[in-house]
Specification:
This protein is mostly helical. The chain is about 65% helix and about 5% strand.
Length: about 200
């Protein structure tokens, strides 16, 4: 019990530090006017500019999301997406490794094989094995639908000139936005102008 208390206290500190590192992370990319092609004038007018005529795309939601959904530049979307996935830097990688180690240690101290069995025992699933079975069954049922939708997104990418390229993770938001515009006549960037996210 004493060891568990020490571990839980340490885990709380690790979790707090992990989130704080993300909250305080300040990063983004500078792009020129040509690399903003596809984004709206309204969006561009909200961006910070420098004396060289470049525009700053930060990792904050109002800056990040419209760029990922609308910018035609694959290279800059990839660069921004990688930075967004790296929030917290190497320090957070180290914190996460220690947190996972302590979770596993606690589970074994309490007689469980691993953390997943520990956290699912008193929930509806009952065990990690049941969760895994549910997810595998769900994946099988959704497989054909997912493949159909991915095929539709691939067609859109091909139409935009990416015939030789498979869909990448940094394409998803962009292609879904194009799909909405094409089939539902919805332009998320235009709609966003009427419901701007409050700036703090």
């Amino acid at each position: 019990q004493e060891k568990l208390k020490v571990n839980f206290k340490r885990m709380a500190k690790l979790s707090s530090d992990f989130q704080q590192n993300i909250n305080e992370w300040n990063d983004g990319i500078w792009v020129n006017e040509a690399e903003l092609a596809g984004t709206s004038a309204y969006y561009q007018n909200q961006l910070q500019r420098d004396t060289q005529g470049r525009f700053y795309i930060s990792l904050d939601y109002p800056s990040l999301v419209p760029f990922m959904e609308n910018a035609l530049s694959t290279e800059r979307r990839e660069e921004l997406a990688k930075k967004n996935l790296s929030k917290g830097g190497e320090q957070n990688t180290l914190l996460l490794k220690e947190l996972l180690k302590l979770r596993h240690e606690n589970a074994q101290l309490l007689g469980y094989a691993h953390h997943a069995d520990y956290v699912t025992e008193d929930r509806m699933a009952g065990s990690a094995a049941n969760v895994e079975k549910f997810l595998l069954d769900l994946a099988e049922k959704l497989k054909n639908k997912v493949l159909t939708e991915l095929d539709e997104l691939q067609k859109i990418k091909n139409e935009l000139g990416g015939n030789s390229e498979k869909i990448q993770y940094f394409d998803i938001a962009f292609l879904i936005s194009k799909h909405k515009q094409k089939h539902l006549n919805i332009n998320t960037d235009s709609v966003r102008e009427y419901f701007p996210l409050a700036r703090i």
